[in-house]
Amino acid sequence: MKPLALFSAGVAATAALAVCGALAGMTVHAETPQSDVAQSGAPRYDASGKLILPADYRDWVFLSSGIDMSYTEAPAVAGMHMFDNVFVPRAAYAAFKRTGVWPDKTVLMLENRTGRTKGSINRQGQFQTGEVMGLEAHVKDTARFKGGWGFFGFGGDHAPAAMIPYAASCYACHQTHAAADTTFVQFYPTLLPVATALGALNPAYVAETKDEPKP
Amino acid sequence: MKPLALFSAGVAATAALAVCGALAGMTVHAETPQSDVAQSGAPRYDASGKLILPADYRDWVFLSSGIDMSYTEAPAVAGMHMFDNVFVPRAAYAAFKRTGVWPDKTVLMLENRTGRTKGSINRQGQFQTGEVMGLEAHVKDTARFKGGWGFFGFGGDHAPAAMIPYAASCYACHQTHAAADTTFVQFYPTLLPVATALGALNPAYVAETKDEPKP
Closest Cα of chain A to B46: distance in Å? Predict the structure, then answer.
């Protein structure tokens, strides 16, 4: 099965997780105190530096969803549809709207859910089911990560996740193609106008999309 | 163009809006004070009883999104894709999770956005664009609406909207087919398990879907 990816740019989440697993425990950081951060949505790490899945991410601000998105021309798997939902803590969302930049300690959560057509009275299109097929995080933590950001893919057990290595394609792809602050704001319709108005767009993104229709 | 509809069950939003327009000012209620309700997400009405668009609905809790959903077998419009995003105020979401029922003064907002495939580096599937094609509200206000709930469709100018008449198909359809409290909880994946566990499912929905796969 081929998961989405707003974050992983066509790199299968399962592959990313396998890489993470191999590196478990490689980097050791002090555990983050749980006080203060639970409300703010700031990242929490375990004693080995793995990211703890934010339990309340569905209560965060919704940035957008897509379906069957892929950054390659490879065809999708027949008969399988995958939504991606992206959430960010309320304080981070408010800060981005003011500045066009994510504040330090921002966590963006990407959730994949299987789509289905036939269910109850629905007959066309796709709705999202209870089946969560993937959870990834993109974390801004400038004291911790080279370049300021780290990617994480959680397994089905939702156990803390080790950082995906910097050599993974997600890092370079976000750096090059993401509309603002290495995040795919071009796919977050309430934030793209904000970043545009604040002059916060990545020049490489602007050049790459100059002939595209707006919005 | 054929908009979706979690709320309007295949009734084109444009048709619903036309109906609303014809009834503008039919029912007169006292204007709701703005204090107290802004935080809670409770409905606000103008002096003629029209619903004021909640300006901050994108900051509410996201229930789910679908794409090209329709409750009829009629084929979709070729080359046009439409997402629907549903939001509910945080306090109402928390109350539903406790009780399986929406508290009085709950507003569910449905937002339609055009989907697009080609944009920036995306090559497959659909992402949501800045083009909002429809905004509808489903409001629980037991002192105001027969059966407790009213539907509203906002025009492109986002002006206050008159209630869609009770004879519109959305009312009977939600009463008959919606999974819980006349809302399509079967399409809200974090709430369906809650309503199921709390015994809050509509018996007609349970009977209608007894042979379907779960979740």
Answer: 27
Please report residues of A whose CB lies closer than 8 A to that of B113: 189
d(CA A37, CA A23): 26
Confidence of residue A34 (pLDDT cuts 50, 70, 90): very low
Neighboring chain A residues of B55 at a CB cutoff of 8 Å: none
**Is A43 a domain residue?**
yes
Residues of chain B with pLDDT under 50: 1-6, 9-38
On whether residue B3 sits in a domain, the answer given is no
Q: Tell me, what's the ipTM? A: 0.83
Q: Is B55 helix (H, G, I), strand (E, B) or coil?
A: coil
Single-letter amino acid code for the residue at B26? M
d(CA A199, CA A201): 6
Q: What is the pTM of this model?
A: 0.84
Do strands A124-140 and A107-116 pair parallel, antiparallel, or not at all (unpaired)?
antiparallel
Q: How far apart are CA A71 and CA B131, in angstroms?
A: 22
A57 φ/ψ sector (left φ>0, alpha ψ -120 to 50, else beta): alpha
**In terms of residue numbers, what domain contains A196?**
13-208
In this predicted structure, the answer to whether residue A137 has a pLDDT above a threshold of 90 is yes
Domain membership of residue B49 (yes or no) is: yes
Total domains in chain B come to: 1
Report the CATH number that the domain containing residue A89 is assigned in CATH: 3.50.70.20
Residue B8 lies in a domain: no
Q: Could you tell me how many CB contacts below 8 A there are between chain A and chain B?
A: 155
Name B196's Cβ contacts closer than 8 Å, sequence gap at least 6.
Answer: none
| Chain B residues within 8 A of A190 when measuring between CB atoms | 58
* Best CA proximity match to B66, nearest among A62, A189, A77, A66: A66
Of B72, B121, B126, the CB nearest to A71: B121
pLDDT for residue B18: 27
Window from A27-41, A108-122, A129-143, A158-172 with minimum mean pLDDT: A27-41
Cα–Cα distance for residue pair A182/A123, rounded to 1 Å: 38
**Identity at B48, one-letter amino acid code:** S
CA distance B25 to chain A (A): 32
